[in-house]
Amino acid sequence: AEGPQLIYHRANAYRRSGFEYSQSVVAPKLIEDKKLFTDAYLVAANNIIKQAKEQGDSPKDFSLTLIRLLSSPKENKDAAFLLEMPRESGGRISLARDVILHAKIPARVARGVYLAKKQIKKKKIRSFLEVYDGKEWLLIDPKEITLKDPNNFVLWEKGNESILEVKGGSNSKV
């Protein structure tokens, strides 16, 4: 086909009454051999980990503090330096995940739609961060820097892969 092609996807999500989100939680294994940071970036990552651990050592408190630090690069030279690091994809959320992983806390990117009581129509897929606290995966909204209720989250995908792949085309949007 030639010319612009449009594909629409519509989904209706309903909560079953009495349904509570549950997931079979198997303790995730950390990948030890992958170097996430090198040289000066490693020093900056270790510095920002130390700063975040001073505010709270639990995976939840550490992760929320770390995201706060990365969201204020003007106030934190290590955050500013790490945000300038060349990255393949993912931006600030992937950087937060990598720093959390470097701190030996399991973390992953989850993309989906968060359904709140207000603004239900025309929701867009967004990236969230999931952090494992030793018992369960916690859902963190990196924009609001808050924990979110997984019962209101419609998961589209886990990981940082592309949601849409186009062959022979360009300028695709999701």
Describe what this molecule looks like in 3D:
The chain is an alpha+beta fold and 174 residues long. The two termini are 20 Å apart. It has helices at 39-55, 59-70, 77-83, 91-102, and strands spanning 107-114, 126-132, 137-141, 146-148, 153-158. The model has no long low-confidence stretch (mean pLDDT 83).
Topology overview:
Elements: H1 39-55, H2 59-70, H3 77-83, H4 91-102, E1 107-114, E2 126-132, E3 137-141, E4 146-148, E5 153-158
Antiparallel strand pairs: 1-2, 1-5, 2-3, 3-4
Helix pairs in contact: 1-2, 1-3, 2-4
Summarize the structure in short.
The protein is an alpha+beta fold and 174 residues long.
Biggest sheet overview? 5 strands, antiparallel
Q: Record the strand order, biggest sheet.
A: 4-3-2-1-5
Number of strands: 5
> Can you count the helices?
4
Q: What oligomeric assembly is this protein in?
A: single chain
| Shape label | globular
User: Measured on Cα atoms, how large is the radius of gyration?
Assistant: 18 Å
Main structural class:
alpha+beta
Q: How much helix is in the residues?
A: 25-40%
Question: How far apart are the first and last residues' alpha carbons, in Å?
Answer: 20 Å
Strand content: 15-25%
Q: Report the average pLDDT across residues.
A: 83
Q: What order do the SSEs take from the amino end to the carboxyl end, as H and E?
A: HHHHEEEEE
* Model regions low in confidence, pLDDT < 50 over at least 5 residues: none
